[in-house]
């Protein structure tokens, strides 16, 4: 059974312009975007084994990465807060750089596990798209990073070919979907 929610998010002028260009009456329909992270959306994200995340780097360029794992690697950890725990490439993933480091490899703190807490007003803007390939279910997310840590995996610290493939690490991330 479907639940009907009251939507308070209006269509953006650019969305309306695109709908008109595509000869679609979609903008006449209510915008399906909801503020925050509802329980229904959170459970759909938790069931998904893949989430694509996007963020802007320090120069304002958009980057995207796909994180994955067992279902529930991304899940609600508090009301309207999405938590993510995933293996990442600490050296060559531009989204990890945008959230935890800089555009240069000179950032000595990325990968040391230090907790960053930029908060809801100052955290980097990010977006996500959870994808369940078996059911074709998708949930779009947008918001800000609240806190996170990127750490080097202990089993990777003694490898000799780190320069060629980058350091493998783990990211713990808390994000608040919805625009403040």
The fraction of residues assigned to DSSP E strands is: 25-35%
How many discrete domains?
1
CATH architecture: Roll
Structural class: alpha+beta
State the separation between the terminal residues, measured CA to CA. 31 Å
CATH fold name: Pnp Oxidase, Chain A
The amount of helix comes to 10-25%
Q: State Rg.
A: 18 Å
Number of helices: 5
Q: Give the CATH level 1 class.
A: Mainly Beta
Uncertain residue segments: 1-7, 103-108
Number of strands: 7
Mean pLDDT: 79
Give an account of the 3D structure.
- With about 180 residues, this protein is of the alpha+beta class.
- The protein has a single domain, classed as Pnp Oxidase, Chain A (Roll).
- About 20% of the residues lie in helices and about 35% in strands.
- The chain contains five helices and seven strands, in the order ααββββααββαβ.
- Strands 2-1-5-6-7-4-3 form a seven-stranded antiparallel beta sheet.
- β1 and β2 form a beta hairpin.
- The protein is globular.
- The N terminus is likely disordered.
């Amino acid at each position: 059974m479907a639940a009907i929610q009251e939507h308070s998010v209006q269509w953006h002028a650019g969305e309306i312009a695109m709908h008109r260009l595509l000869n679609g009456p979609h903008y006449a329909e209510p915008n399906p975007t909801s503020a925050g992270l509802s329980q229904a959306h959170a459970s759909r994200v938790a069931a998904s084994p893949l989430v694509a995340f996007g963020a802007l780097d320090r120069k304002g360029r958009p980057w995207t990465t796909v994180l994955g794992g067992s279902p529930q690697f991304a899940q609600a950890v508090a009301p309207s807060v999405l938590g993510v725990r995933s293996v990442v490439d600490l050296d060559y993933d531009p989204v990890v750089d945008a959230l935890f480091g800089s555009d240069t490899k000179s950032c000595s703190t990325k990968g040391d596990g230090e907790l960053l807490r930029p908060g809801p007003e100052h955290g980097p803007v990010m977006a996500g798209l959870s994808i369940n390939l078996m059911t074709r279910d998708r949930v779009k997310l947008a918001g800000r990073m609240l806190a996170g840590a990127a750490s080097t995996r202990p089993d990777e610290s003694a490898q000799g070919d780190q320069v060629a493939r980058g350091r493998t690490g783990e990211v713990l991330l808390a994000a608040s979907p919805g625009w403040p």
